[in-house]
Amino acid sequence: MDDLQQLTATFTDGLATVGHELTSVRLLLQFGLILLAAVIGTLAASLIRRRLNVSALTAGWPLFLREFTRLLVANLGTIIFVVLVAIAHAVMLTLLTFPSRSYLLGVASSLATAWVVIALVAGLIRNQFVYRLVAVSAWTIAALSILGLLTPTMNTLDSVGVVIGGLRVTPLLIIKTSVLLVLTLWAANAASDFLDRRVRSTADLTPSIQVLIGKLIRLLLITFAIIIVLSTVGIDFSALAFFSGAVGVGLGFGLQKIISNLVSGIILLADKSIKPGDVITVGDSFGWVDSMGARYTSVVTRDGREFLIPNEDFVTQRVINWSYSNDEVRIDVEFGVAYTSDPHKVSTLAVEAARSVARVLIDGITNVRGQVLIALWDAFKRDGIEIPYPVRDVRLSEATKPAAGAKKKEKPAKR
């Protein structure tokens, strides 16, 4: 409570000082100079951006310099504002001597400078959520530090807490942990994506091994990031033993399928029974494997639909991998001709038709069977043995005659 009272007193004193200074001409002059600098900075930046073609100017530059130049142009108005306010602050310090008489200009210049620096550094982050989180958090800390409220605010947030399993949870601990966790997880994902691209570009590794290495790298980096955050904020791992029982129950009941799919995915990647690019049939789904994740495998069908099949199904169900050992499969195409057709001519025409398709290979066991059947047809024809035609007998029983006669009698007479 002492920290809260100190923060309240500091804030009240600041409001009282501002309220007292509102009646002075110096404060109104500083407000006017700040407003004038903001207007000039906005207009000048807009004029420069109209006349400057950043894309043409930075063509051929390295990616980092192009991105940094884009950020400079985007924050040009704030940069001009900082320069003008800093000049006005220096002039007032020279003329009025006392720093307190130009305090507002100094605060405005410091806050704007902090914003420009943070925008230039955080602007290199492509993830918009992480960028906003970093920018807002960093500028809030900088603003509190410039105003002299950082230490009282941190003490106030740390003065209230709840003890859970030997761990004291405070608002300050939650904020620090959340911000650091988001930043480290983002860094871990960015690093894992970079390493995954390098692994996939290695031609010596099979696609399944590439995916397996990429998943293991991501898992290790994320685990390492979480451990670093917990250690940085001062959380003792022994204090987390309170949650181990609940986590075990959750894994045993609620997360059975997730763990099963995760383990099944690792097995599939390790034994290389299914890999990206394979043509498979599992259940009613037929298509090629597009990607393999930790929980599911993406199978794209011929009509463009994408099935997300749990990895467990590939382990527990019967799976047909049409391209497991090679890409050649046999497809039987049945067709019929008249009994009087010459089988030699039919066979020749069928083979020529099949050879006209680029993806068809003719060699195989079907040729042997076809030649045997044609040899049998020649032998039967030479010795006068006929191949029987299908015969269908239609017989009418006696029970159907009265019914037919009765129906005939019921026919109305013509008038």
**How would you classify the helix and strand content by structural class?**
alpha+beta
Number of strands: 7
Count of runs of 4 or more consecutive helical residues: 16
Order of SSEs, N→C?
Answer: HHHHHHHHEEHHHHEEEEHEHHH
Q: Based on CA inertia axes, which overall geometry fits? A: elongated
The strands making up the biggest β-sheet line up spatially as 6-5-4-3-7
Return the domain count.
4
Mean pLDDT value: 77
What are the segments in which pLDDT stays under 50 over at least 5 consecutive residues? none
Beta-strand proportion: 5-15%
- Helical percent range? 55-70%
Q: The biggest beta sheet, please?
A: 5 strands, antiparallel
Distance between the termini: 115 Å
Radius of gyration: 40 Å
Task: Describe this structure in a few short sentences.
With 415 residues, the protein is of the alpha+beta class. The chain is 63% helix and 7% strand.
Protein architecture, described:
- With 415 residues, the chain is an alpha+beta fold.
- Helices cover 63% and strands 7% of the residues.
- The protein folds into four domains: 156 residues, no CATH class; 95 residues, Orthogonal Bundle (Helix Hairpins), CATH 1.10.287; 48 residues, SH3 type barrels (Roll), CATH 2.30.30.60; 40 residues.
- The strands form two sheets. Strands 6-5-4-3-7 form a five-stranded antiparallel β-sheet. A two-stranded antiparallel sheet has the order 1-2.
- Helix 7 packs antiparallel against helix 9.
- The longest helix is centred in the middle third of the chain and has 30 residues.
- The relative contact order is 0.05.
